[in-house]
């Protein structure tokens, strides 16, 4: 790949850049997980998009703008930092493919916000996180997600209190188990069925 970039490592909770900072560099995630967030007018943090391994971000640097969002590391991550002039050939094609794929994820997320109720949004978000480095399997081969109620609220444009109520309901139904920063998905068919009912309603 042309333009290999400068390797970086960042720990959970590190902030790579903030809104309003001059966008001098763009980045690609190699390992780990990051997210881009913004503050609403009411002062609430919302997750705009996740940055998965292979994703480019900080694309404002391509047009010498300021960063629009805050980039936060969710899991210890390996990154590469690029100057816009470094990108050509295969690197530029990879950038365009990455941004196109992220746009598709954003469109799907916005559709979910418009058509699904909060319980469905939370279940979909949990399943999405399970496919990221936040997800894994326990010794009993049960899928789980390392996530707080606050993270779920910021990713579903909700409140921590509302998320806690939904998590309590899902736990009472026997679909999940939850603990500190840890949610185990016990009944995947039931959770997936909830999403299919959302799709059926949206198609009517």
Query: Cα distance, first to last residue?
Result: 46 Å
Strand content: 25-35%
Output the CATH topology of the largest domain. Answer: Arc Repressor Mutant, subunit A
Anisotropy-based shape: globular
Give the oligomeric state.
Answer: single chain
User: What's the β-strand tally?
Assistant: 10
Biggest β-sheet description: 6 strands, antiparallel
N-to-C order of helices and strands: EEEEEEHHEEHHEEH
**CATH top level of the largest domain?**
Mainly Alpha
Low-confidence stretches: 199-204
- Based on the coordinates given, report the CATH architecture of the largest domain: Orthogonal Bundle
Q: What is the helix content? A: 25-40%
Radius of gyration over C-alpha positions, nearest whole angstrom:
18 Å
pLDDT averaged residue by residue: 90
Number of domains: 2
Which structural category fits the helices and strands? alpha+beta
Number of helices: 5
Fourth-level CATH superfamily of the largest domain: Winged helix-like DNA-binding domain superfamily/Winged helix DNA-binding domain
Explain this structure.
- The protein has 204 residues and is of the alpha+beta class.
- The protein has two domains: 6-90, Jelly Rolls (Sandwich), CATH 2.60.120; 114-203, Winged helix-like DNA-binding domain superfamily/Winged helix DNA-binding domain (Arc Repressor Mutant, subunit A, Orthogonal Bundle), CATH 1.10.10.
- It has helices at residues 90-115, 118-130, 149-155, 160-172, 188-203, and strands at 6-10, 15-17, 26-39, 45-51, 56-57, 70-82, 135-137, 143-145, 176-179, 182-185.
- The strands form two sheets. Strands 1, 2, 3, 4, 5 and 6 form a six-stranded antiparallel β-sheet that branches.
- Helix 3 (149-155) packs across helix 4.
